[in-house]
Write a structure and sequence with these properties.
alpha/beta, Aspartate Aminotransferase, domain 1, Aspartate Aminotransferase, domain 2, seven-stranded mixed beta sheet, three-stranded antiparallel beta sheet, 13 helices
């Protein structure tokens, strides 16, 4: 039966798939592709985390169904993290929940709080789940800027004034993926006051809170007391502790929102595998040297990338946080657009990046470069990109001469 499902119709073709398919074909042909595309940490978790998993998995009792909301010990560890890092008190029983990574948590809360036709405010460019979690749930998404400031606040005011129905929720993500933009508590205070006045929920994605470099540690929106009446915050073990494949994260904040997420999750899953939750508890409660080491590793890779590309003739800003560089396409290739430039980079330099258009239309003109290759491989990529830029200029000059001759 040929059935065009309504929710599938609302999902556009996955832009990243074109680059991913090219990458797969190149690797199948034996080509060495340096992959800056997916934000996939390449380091293993710290040994004490792996050892706790190994130790726990040998207990025959832990192979039964787990707790959908998260085991009590992990929820207490989440509360301890918030107190230690942000000076915020979290009730582990009513204000914290364990998720299968922040992506699952965001998607399920979108489903829990959305009625078809609701208006949701989402930054553009943004990580795809921020808008498509709500689109799948039947919402209408309205874009707002990522850059903080008066433009951001004016966009919120216009959204309230011109949206029917009034916006239900606002998604925030700082440090931001893909742009690496960061904000301070003054920004959060202004946004919380606005949303509190207009009855708009806030969903904050804080997945990169511990990956910061030349700035003060990024704040949490939950440091604003009034935020507890309207906001919930998601974070993840994936980047901070190099645990992406473990699929473990958490949310904290407003008890009503946490309760809504818990209720939906109770129908959909039995929680992460208990040994993974025990190991995540060990990560949060244990020594944090591994976090400092991961931060230093990404900073070193960032510096190698930014300095090397500048020497090759491609100037990109150094990100203050996250594991990504948000790179404007080099001027001589700007007319190609981000998708074609990404494909050109892959075919000519054997380097994979993510096209900015995949993060929304305002991502056009950029590519996202993930700091997920070591310094040696990064330098190799820089050499290839430098050669590609020279080759690209020659190819484009020949093309222009050919067109001129044909005319």
């Amino acid at each position: 039966m040929d059935q065009d499902f309504h929710k599938i119709r609302r999902l556009p073709p996955y832009v990243f798939a074109e680059v991913n398919n090219m990458k797969a074909r190149a690797r199948a042909a034996g080509e060495d592709i340096i992959d800056f595309g997916m934000g996939n940490p390449d380091q293993p978790p710290a040994e004490h985390i792996v050892e706790k998993l190994r130790e726990t998995v040998l207990d025959p009792k832990v192979h039964q169904y787990s707790n959908s909301r998260g085991i009590p010990g992990l929820r207490k560890a989440i509360a301890a993290y918030y107190e230690r890092r942000f000076g915020v008190d979290v009730d582990p029983e009513t204000e914290a929940i364990v998720t299968l990574g922040s992506k699952e948590g965001l998607a399920n809360l979108s489903s829990a709080i959305t009625t078809p036709g609701d208006v949701i405010l989402v930054p553009n460019p943004s990580y795809p789940i921020h808008q498509f979690g709500f689109i799948i749930a039947g919402a209408a998404v309205r874009n707002i800027p990522v850059e903080p400031g008066q433009g951001f606040m004016k966009a919120l005011e216009r959204a309230v004034l011109h949206s029917v129905p009034k916006p239900t929720a606002l998604v925030l993500n700082y440090p931001n993926n893909p742009t690496a933009i960061c904000v301070d508590l003054d920004f959060y205070t202004e946004v919380v006051d606005f949303c509190h006045f207009h009855g708009i929920y806030i969903l904050s994605d804080l997945a990169y809170a511990e990956l910061y470099y030349d700035i003060a540690p990024p704040p949490s929106i939950l440091q604003i007391r009034r935020a507890w009446e309207i906001a919930v915050e998601f974070t993840s073990m994936s980047k901070t502790y190099s645990m992406p494949g473990w699929r473990i994260g958490f949310a904290a904040g407003n008890p009503q929102l946490i309760g809504a997420l818990a209720r939906v999750k109770s129908y959909l899953d039995y929680g992460a595998f208990t040994p993974i939750q025990v190991a995540a508890t060990a990560a949060l409660n244990g020594p944090q040297d591994c976090v400092d080491e991961v931060r230093a590793l990404y900073k070193d890779r960032r510096d190698v990338l930014v300095e090397g590309l500048a020497a090759a003739g491609w100037d990109i800003p150094a990100p203050d946080a996250t594991m990504f560089a948000w790179a404007p396409i080099s001027p001589q290739f700007a007319d190609m657009g981000s998708l074609e430039f990404s494909k050109f980079l892959l075919s000519e330099a054997k380097v994979a990046v993510s096209p900015g258009i995949g993060f929304g239309e305002h991502g056009e003109g950029y590519v996202r470069i993930a700091l997920c290759e070591n310094a040696h491989r990064t330098r190799q990529a820089i050499r290839s990109i430098k050669a590609m830029m020279g080759l690209g200029n020659k190819k484009r000059a020949l093309t222009k001469r050919s067109k001129a001759a044909a005319e």
